[in-house]
Amino acid sequence: MLRRAKMLFALLFAPVIALAISGGAVAEEAKRWAINMPRGVTSVSNSIYDIHMLVFWIVTVTGVLVFAVMFYAMYAHRKSRGAVAANFHENTTAEIVWTAIPAVILILLCIPATTTMIDVYDNSEAEIDIKVTGLQWKWQYEYLGEDIKFLSELSTPESEIYNTAPKGQYYLQEVSEPLVIPVDTKVRFLITGNDVIHSWWVPDFGVKRDAIPGFINDAWAIVTKTGVYRGECTELCGKGHPFMPVVVNVLEKEEYKTWLAKKKVEVAAVRALTNKTFTMDELMEIGEEAYNRSCAGCHQGNGQGIPGVFPSLVGQGVAVGPVAAHLEIVVNGRAGTAMQAFGDQLSEIDQAAIITYERNAWGNNVGDLVQPIDVYNYKQGK
After folding, report:
1. Nearest-angstrom CA–CA distance, 94 and 87
2. Radius of gyration for the alpha carbons in the chain, expressed in angstroms and rounded
3. Domain covering 2-120 in this structure, CATH number
4. CATH 2.60.40.420 fits 128-255, yes or no
5. pLDDT tens-digit profile of 294-346?
C-alpha cells in the first residue's frame, strides 16, 4: 500500500519537480516561443512580472495538490477494494480551513499588487514629457517644451505585405521614425487619440494605455537598458489596425542630447524650406514618398482606393477638381468619414507635395503645382 502511494505521488509531482529543477531552461524556452510575458526593462515591468509568476506558481502548486488528493482518494478508496463511503453531514473545521487558506493567500497577494499599482500611477517628478497621439493608422509624438513633433508610421514595404517579396525580420514592426528617449530617465507619456480609440502598448516597459479622443491617459517609464523596444496598438481601430507598430529607441543620455539637438536643427530647416519654391520634379519625388507613407493605406499605392470604402483619386474627385477644395480636404479632413485632417500631422512641404503628386500622378496630369507657402497661407486664412 505504501509503495503504491509513493508511486502515485511520484507520478503526480514529477512535472512540478522537473519544472523546479529545470527552471532556467524552461524560462529560456518560454522566452523563445513568447509564451510568457517579458520581464521587461523597467521597475514596473519587473514588479508586474514577479506578481504574475508568483500567482502562476501558487495556482500551479494548489492545482497539483488538490488533484493529488482527489486522485489518491479515488485510487485508495475505490469500490473494488471494498471501500465504503463515509456518511456525515458537515465538518466545520474543514470548512473554516478551506475558506481561510484562500483568504490568507489573497490578502498576502494584495500587498505586492497594491504597491505595484501605486507605483504604476506615480508619474510625479518626470524629467521628460511626451504627448502620444493615436491616429488611423500611425502614432504622433510631441516632445513638450522642445518644439519637436513627428509621425511614426509603418515602413514595411507593400511588397512584403502583399506577399510579392520575402518578409523581413521586423515585418510589420518597423517604422519611419521611432520614439527616442534616454536611459535611466523618468519619462512621462501623455496618451490620447485623434479619431477613434487606440491603445499604446510597449510590453518591455510594462506600459499599456488606451488612446481616447478628448481624454488623456498618462503613464511613465524609467528604462534601465539601452536598445530598441517594440510594441503595437492593442485596440481594434479599423482597417489599418495591424499596421500601427510602436518602436522606441532608448539611447545613452549623451546620445539622446545629441539626437535632440540634431532634431531641432532638422525642424528649423524644414520650417525654413516652407518659403522655398520647389520644382515639379522635386514635389513629385517628395509627394510620392509622403503619399505612400500617409495616404496609400486607404487610397492604395495606385490611387484606385477601395470601391465603396475609400474613393479613387484617378481621373476623378478632388484630385482633378479645384485646388482650393483639394487643400481644404487635406488640411482639414472631412467630418464623418475616414479622411483625417493632415494640417497638424504633416509639414507644409509634405502636404504641398502630396497634393501636387495626387494631381499629376496616375495619368491625372492636371499640371497644378502647390507650394509649401500656399499650404501655410491657406492655414493662416490668407
Report:
1. 15
2. 29
3. 1.10.287
4. yes
5. 888 889 889 999 888 889 999 998 999 999 999 999 999 888 888 888 888 88
